[in-house]
Automatic annotation (TrEMBL):
Residues 10-25 have a biased composition (Polar residues). It comes from the Bacteria. It catalyses: 6-(2-amino-2-carboxyethyl)-7,8-dioxo-1,2,3,4,7,8-hexahydroquinoline-2,4-dicarboxylate + 3 O2 = pyrroloquinoline quinone + 2 H2O2 + 2 H2O + H(+). One of its GO terms (molecular function) is pyrroloquinoline-quinone synthase activity. InterPro entries: Haem_Oase-like_multi-hlx, PqqC, PqqC-like, Thiaminase-2/PQQC. Ring cyclization and eight-electron oxidation of 3a-(2-amino-2-carboxyethyl)-4,5-dioxo-4,5,6,7,8,9-hexahydroquinoline-7,9-dicarboxylic-acid to PQQ. This is Pyrroloquinoline-quinone synthase. Keywords: Oxidoreductase, PQQ biosynthesis. Residues 33-242 form the Thiaminase-2/PQQC domain.
Amino acid sequence: MNAKDILGTAPQQGEGTSADGSQPAWTREEFEAQLRAKGTAYHIHHPFNVKMNSGGCSREQIRGWVANRFYYQINIPLKDAAVLSNCPDRETRRRWVLRILDHDGYGDEEGGIETWARLGDAVGLSRDDLWSLKQVTPGVCFAVDAYVNFARRAPWQESVCSSLTEMFAPQVHRDRLASWPEHYPWIEPSGLAYFRSRISLAQRDVQHGLEVTLDHFTRREQQERALEILQFKLDILWTMLDSIEKAFPQ
């Protein structure tokens, strides 16, 4: 998908209704299965990611990917803060705020943004290069900004639903932990700590996100809309890799 298509794919209120409006809702189990089936479109299957995990990327490509994904990382707390600002339910906020702390850090916990910056160190990016965002492509900026703006404007339950790409994230982290030390021995192993930490955190976050989604999207037209929202987020992630692949061809 081209980056310019992202705003066109953002689901709009009222879309996703059945043609005759009479289809029965899926059961919770059926609905969850439909959500999980979207994993076939996860960016783990993108040609650039496949190439990266099979050892086919150059140092420049790895560094370009790390630098561009950093823009996504630093925007995740903004997305999660948008969810909080739109959510009137205290118990949900008490659980959701952990996501911000996970990324920004707190107390002695350095957080995911710093851990990703350490990945940048490990692949040979200076902190100035990383934080300047000078390697971030316009396509990545466009895609990430579209995601944050969706979270700001959408009902909080829809923003929660969009986060369910995390259902598929543990596997991509396991793949990197398994393949990178062999294919990229020049990367300092300590730099892979982000991938290791996100496996358990993503599983925790998915449990909460699924609870909200399965509880809120109960009518068939709502469930179909939820699938469109999840597809929108999948398109965001795929488009980011499209842009990175084009900017760093070798």
